[in-house]
Amino acid sequence: MCGIIGYVGKEPAAPILLESLKRLEYRGYDSAGITVLNSTIETYKTVGRIADLEVVLPAEIIANVGIGHTRWATHGKPETRNAHPHLSSGVSVVHNGIIENYLELKERLIGLGYEFESDTDTEVIVHLLHYNMNNGGNSIDLLTAMRKTIRELEGSYAIASLCCNEPDSVVFARKDSPLVIGIGETGNYAASDVTAFLKHTKNVIYISDHEVGCIHPDAIRIYDLDGNLLEKPTEVIEWDLEAAEKSGYEHFMLKEIHEQPTSIQSTFAGKLMELEGTVKMDELYLNHEQIKHLRRATIVACGTSWNAGILGKYLFEKLAGIHTDIETASEFRYGNPVLCGEELTIAITQSGETADTLAAARSSKSYGCRTVAITNVVGSTITRESDSVIYTRAGPEIGVAATKTFTAQLITLYMLAIHMGRIRGVITADEAKNLIVNLKRLPGQIQRILSRKEKIKECAEQFADKRDYFFIGRYLNYPVALEGALKLKEISYIHAEGYAAGELKHGPLALITEETPVVAIATKGHTYDKILSNIKEVKARNAVVIAVANEDDKEIEKYADVVLRIPASHEMTSPVLSSVVLQLLAYYTALAKDCSIDKPRNLAKSVTVE
Ligand code: F6R
Fold it and tell me: If 456 and its partner were Cys, which of 225, 233, 481, 584 is the partner (CB 3.0–4.6 Å)?
C-alpha cells in the first residue's frame, strides 16, 4: 500500500503535495518523492518520511503542477532509487499497487534500449508510457499512451503521471487500487484517498476500475478504456479529516480488518498458478533437490506470528510431509536446539524487527540452517539477515493488534506448504488446484462475513462485562482459538485463554462456570464431532457457548447459545475466515468497553527489545 497525489491548479504545487503526502503517510512511510513541472521537470526523493523529503527540497519551487508519492515497499528495498516518482525522459509516474507481469515487461523494455535504475515494478510503467508516446515516430499524448499502457499491465494500480510536453495536466488510471479526484476552487487533485485534499475540497469523483483520465486547472476528464468520455457523479464528503484518514472507520483496527479481502489478494497476487496446480515462489532460494531433501523445519516467532506458525506447522506436515517444530522465539534462543545444516528455519515476523525473533533466526543460522523470513516490512532487519524473504504485502498496519498481517501470514504459509508439497510429491496437482481455488475464494468469503458483522457486534456487547473467556479449537482451529484469545485480551483487557479443546478436561475445566463464555471454533472438518463433544462438556458446566460455524451447519444450533457464521468452506482454509470473526468479536468487545483500541495499554507495535 502506498499513497499517491497529483495536483494541477493556480496554487504553488510543492506545498500542496507535501501536505497531502503527510495525510497519506499512514499508507506507507519508508520513502517519498515528488515531481513538479514548470519550464523543466524536477524530481526530488528520499528514504524516510515526508519530513525527510522536506529537508532535501530547495527553499523555493516554482510550479503549479506536480505528483507525489509516499511508499510502502513491495518490490525493491526502501532506497532513494526505488522511491517514486520514476522517470523516463520527461515522463514521471507515481503508482500504488503491484504490477504482476513486470519482469516480462522489463525484459522487453530492456530489449528496446530502456535502462532501469530501480528494482521496482513501477519503473516498467513509466518506460512503457514513454515508449507508447513515441512508438514508431508518431507521438501521441500522455492520456492516449496511458490507455495503451494499462492494457499491457497485469495486476493492480492507481497511477498518476505527468510529462514535460503537457504542462497543465496530470493523467491518471486505476485498477484494483483506490483513486479519487478532488474538485477544488483553485485546482484539481487525484489521490489515493480523500484525506489528501480534504482541507481544500469536499467535492469528489470516485474513479472505478479500468478508467483513465486527466485533471487540468479548471477541467476534469474521465474516459473508459476505449476512449469514450464518461459522465461521473460528483459526491460530497461528509467526514472530517481525522475520520477520513481512517477512511471513515472509527479505528485503524476496524479499517485493517476490512482491508483483508484486498490484503489477501495482494499477498497471493501473481503466485497462484491454478491451471498447473502450483504456487510460484521465486523468492525461496531453495532448489527442488534441497526442498525434496528437507528433513525438518523449525518455525520461530512471537505473539500473533507464533499463532500463525502453529497453522504453518500443520500445513507443512500435511501438505509437504515435512516434520515441523514451532518455537517461541524468546524461549528458543535460551534452549539447546538440536539443529543441523539440512534444516530450514522459518522466522515469521510482521515487523521484521522483533528482537527475540531476530535472535532466534540468528541462532539457527549459527547451526548452519537455511533461514526464510516471512515479513510485511520490506528492508526490515530480518530481510537483511535471512537467506530468503517472502513478503506478505498486507500494507502498513497501524493498529497495534495484528489483523490483516496475521491473515496474510496464513496465506503465505498455505502457499509455501503447497509449493513444497508439490515438489516433494506429497500432494497431487489436483489437490493443489483444489486448495488454490479455495484460497482464491477467501477474499469474497471475508467480504460476506464483513457484510454481516452486526451479529458479531451484538454478541460482543452481550458478553462485554465478563471477566474471563475461553477459546477452544482442535487441529487447524487450535491456532485460531489462540489468536482469538490473544486479540480479545490485548484490546479489551478481558482475561482470555486459548486452548486445544481436548486439553480442557486436563485442568481448565475447573474454571468453567455460567460466567465464562466459551468460544468454540466448530467449523466442518474431520475434528467436528470431537469439538461437539467438547462443547457438550462445557455446556454441562453451565458455560455459555459461542460457536463459530459454517453457514450450512444446522446441527450446531442444538448445542451453542450463539452461533457466529462463516461461509461454507474447505476445512483447510476455514481458519482464515474464523479468524476474521474473532477479530471482529475482540474489536466490538473493546468498543463496548470503550478501550483504547488502536493503542492498547502497555503494548507497542514492534517489540525491538528483549
Ligand atoms: C498481537 C501482536 C503481537 C505481535 C508480536 C510479534 O496483536 O501484534 O503479538 O504479533 O509482538 O510481532 P512481529 O510479528 O512484528 O514479530
Answer: 584
